[in-house]
Amino acid sequence: MTPVTVFFSYSHRDEKLRDKLALHLALLQKQGVIQSWHDRKIMAGMEWAQAIDDNLNTAEIILLLVSDNFLASDYCYDIEMQRAMERHAAQEALVVPIILKPVDWSGAPFGKLQAFPKDAKPVTKWSNRDEAFMNIAQGIRTVANTLRERPPTVSKAAPVTAKLQIHGWKHQAADQLPDVELDWTPYFNLDARPQRQVADLQTWHTILLPQLKQVRDQLTGGRANLTLDIQGLLPLSAALIIGTVFQDAAGYTLQTTQRTVGNNQIWRSNASPSSLKFKVVEEHGTPGDDLLMIFAISGSSWAEMGTVYTHSKEQFNAMIYVEPETGTGEQSLGSDADAIALALHAKTLIQHYRDQYQAKRIHLIFYTPMGFCLFLGSRLRLVGDVIPYERVAYGIYQPSAELQTG
Prior knowledge:
Layout: E1 4-9, H1 15-24, H2 26-30, E2 34-37, H3 48-56, E3 61-66, H4 68-72, H5 74-89, E4 94-99, H6 129-149, E5 160-167, E6 180-183, H7 201-220, E7 226-231, H8 236-245, E8 252-260, E9 263-268, E10 278-285, E11 290-296, H9 302-310, E12 318-324, H10 336-356, E13 361-367, H11 370-379, E14 385-393, E15 396-399, E16 403-404
Parallel strand pairs: 1-2, 1-3, 3-4, 5-6, 5-7, 7-8, 11-12, 11-13, 13-14
Antiparallel strand pairs: 8-9, 10-12, 14-15, 14-16
Helix pairs in contact: 8-11, 10-11
């Protein structure tokens, strides 16, 4: 029989406990009962997020290693766990909570699932932890053997499209009645003087982000393969944040209407990427906690960005300014294929320069089409803390939400 594939979803702060569990599962692997995977198996040169997505989306058993660290992790809880539960609901995988530490998990989406060890007693509360891990291994053996003996099933989950209308800078009439409608105009005002009004950090974290997560839960309803049609005149930082809530790793395909070369096009986040890439135009600074990265597509903004960086050297240790290799302007992106290509390259650049400059926080400024920000957000994970900014006046940018991407 073919081994059952097992995926570990865990916080890196619980790595020692995960390693101990892996030791107790070693015999199951040698006997061909299971084949386990976790992110420490990613080889040098591989794209981290893609490797995680591929294994999360194909695993037959998904182990949620539950602890305070797991529940507090935006990536573990909002991305991996969300996708795991969608696949569980679609009968594509079996989710098994493994309770590592004492924590209130009863209200979590996986709260009603059968958990290990016995009686869901946390591993760290056992007087002999090896007995706890043995109990878990025995339970996983039973689950895996049951799956191996079960005849294969074909998922009946059909793609679903939902429409989300968000009124950002101003109200905009919808062509069709949306499934969900959010009015953010009290928080954004293009015409406010002397500076535009945009939502601040507190507003994002106490009002707007909770609204988005509630909408996500409402629209998803346990379904996988959801296409989300997002419409509205949105600030660029808002588009990025929306994308982070509806991640491609969780099974979402994002769709939006984007004006390109004088025409409206439907851009989709699952388009095949073109060969377009960014080039680094300006690079300044030294290693430190805060790195500013500026992505300019719609036009060259270096004159303004140079001023911003010069006046903010006490805030940012370094700055990277990039433009498409083919130049900036309305014609720089001809389709969603170009937007996807640049979004993928932008993420690669963020990871590269975060490591090079040893940055703890990445600060992002955009002069781009909204669709690019949306698609980048849907792929923005495992790059550390990210803070997008919104332009309120010439040379003045205000931080929006602080995003923890893992």
